Amino acid sequence: MLAQFLRSLNAYVRDEHGLAFEVADYSVYYFAEIWGCPPDVSNERVHAFFQSEHFRSGVEPIPGALEALTRLRATCDLEVVTSRQHVIERPTLDWLDAHFPGVFDAVHFGNHFALEGGSRKKSEICRDIGAHVLVDDNPGYALDCAEEGIDVMLFDWNLGYPWAKTEAGPVHPKITRVADWAGLCAELEALAAALAAAGA
Question: What is the fold of 65-197?
Fold first, then answer.
C-alpha cells in the first residue's frame, strides 16, 4: 500500500533470472507459484533481491500515499504492520524515513517467509498494539484480521492487483475494498468518525 515493491522485484528477476512478469500476472501473492519454482528457490531469490540495487534504490512509493497519510495523521495514530523480514528492518526504516518522514509512530515486522527467526501474524500484532484498522492488499491477512474483529481496508490499487481479488471476495462485514489512497482516506475518516461517536 505504501511501496511499489512488486514492480521492483519483477525488474530484479527479469535482469537476474530472465523471468518476465508484470504486476497483473500475480493472481496470488505467492511467488513460488507464479514463478513456477520451489518455495526455497523463491525465498532465495527474494532475499537476493534485498541485497540488490533494485531493492536499495528502485522501490517507489504509491502515488497519493504521503498526502493521504499526512491528512490522516491529524486525527489518527498511524503505525506500520508489515510482513517484511527482520533482515531488511534497517533498509525498510530508512525507506520510510525518506518517503514518509514523521508519518508513523512505530513499525512492526511480522518476519514472514524469513530464512531464520520466528514470525508473528498480523492479527496478533494488531491486537497487541490495539489497532482499530488494518490497511492491506493481501486477502489472507485481511480475512485473518477481520475475523479477529479488526476493520480492514483491502487495498486494490486502481483495481489492478489480481491477488487482492478472490472468488470469495473475501466477503466479510469488516472488510472494505478500496482502489486508491483518496478513497482509502475517505473510508478511514468515515470509520474514525463512527468509532469516535461510539466511544471506541
Answer: Rossmann fold (3.40.50)
